[in-house]
Amino acid sequence: MSLFITLEGPDGGGKSTQARLLVEHLAARGLPALLTREPGGTPIGDQIRRTLMDLGNTGMYPRTEILLFSASRAQIVHEVIRPRLEAGAVVVCDRFYDSTLAYQGYGHGLDLTALRAITDFATGGLRPDLTFLIDLPAEDGLRRRRRGGQWNRLDAYDLAFHQRVRQGYFDLAAAEPDRWVTVDATRPVDAVQSEIRRVVEVRLERG
Ligand code: TMP
Fold first, then answer.
1. Is 204 in contact with 31 (CB distance < 8 Å)?
2. Which of 199, 185, 206 is nearest to 92 (CA)?
3. What is the total count of domains within the chain?
């Protein structure tokens, strides 16, 4: 069966680790899944990612930012995600369009209706089946990122920006409770992963 799972949340919550562990688990139970990430995940998307993350690009206008994220997304949907889902595969994506709504919408305060239209254009209307909000307070996440040496241009936005992003995720999750599952990422990696696996297993059993 095809299943499109996305992981979302503030920076530093360990989404990438959780996505990787989930894919390893699925492979071990005989269900190979494709792991990918946004922005990036294709050669063109990776070039766009470098521009977006470059600490030197301090002058980037928020509307430019959203169009670049959307360009990377259009490419990955076309090149990778849609073909795999059509072939009946499981796809696990580290961030998808909810990141645009949370960061550019709630974080920068750009109009959510316009963002949804741009996002739909980029994805052709593709929606995740299941989305995990890997949640932790913005301060904790930024502290972890700084410690891990992964600091990028978006991390460098002020704390209030990251707090708006987190609140945005709460709003998005509350608006679509059937799609979203919120997981407390202040716990150890294994505990977070066990919860994710439990939810995915139930979903797979349901078919
Ligand atoms: P990450 O891949 O390490 O999570 O970093 C990606 C950064 O880009 C992160 O700060 C979230 C941000 N982002 C947006 O602002 N909008 C988007 O649409 C996406 C996909 C990511």
1. yes
2. 199
3. 1
What is the distance between the alpha carbons of residues 111 and 178, in angstroms, rounded to a whole number? 24
Count of positions (residues) in the chain: 207
**Residue 169 belongs to domain spanning:** 3-206
Per-residue model confidence (pLDDT) at position 148: 83
Q: Which of 38, 61, 99 to mutate to test the pocket of ligand 1 (most atoms within 8 A of CB)?
A: 99
Count, in order, helices (H) and strands (E) of the chain: 9, 5
Specify the residue with its C-alpha closest to ligand 1, atom 3: 11
pLDDT in the model for residue 185: 97
Determine whether the shortest distance from the Cβ of 8 to ligand 1 is under 6 A.
no
Tell me, what's the pLDDT at 145? 87
pLDDT tens digit sequence for 122-174: 999 999 999 999 999 999 999 998 888 778 888 888 899 999 999 999 999 99
Give the per-residue pLDDT at 183. 98
Identify the CATH number of the domain in which residue 164 sits.
Answer: 3.40.50.300
Q: Enumerate residue ranges in the chain where pLDDT < 70.
A: none
Residue 98, ligand 1, Cβ within 6 A: no
Burial, 65: exposed, middle or buried (Cβ in 10 Å; 0-12, 13-18, 19+)?
A: buried
Cis before 188? omega within 30: no
- DSSP-assigned letter for residue 4: E
Beta-carbon count within 10 A of 162 CB: 22
